[in-house]
Amino acid sequence: MGIIGWILMGLIAGIIAKFLMPGKDPGGCIVTPLIGIAGGLLGGWLGKVIFGVDSIDGFFELSTWIAAIVGSLILLGVWRLVTHARD
User: Which domain holds residue 48?
Assistant: First the structure.
């Protein structure tokens, strides 16, 4: 999957993660896609390390989307903990 595919998947995964974990987040519409892109990478890495599977098979594979969304949810939760701790 190319870099454009990763960016597109990250944007969508970030939006889905925000939908699944609603609330007010600092950073708004700039940070959410960045969290999604990084979450996709994190989810793929965690799937490979923890479960020993290649979770990044292709853009239209369910395992790829699940990994990207779970990674985005993890990063969104960490982002909230870090930014709310500074308040």
Answer: 3-86
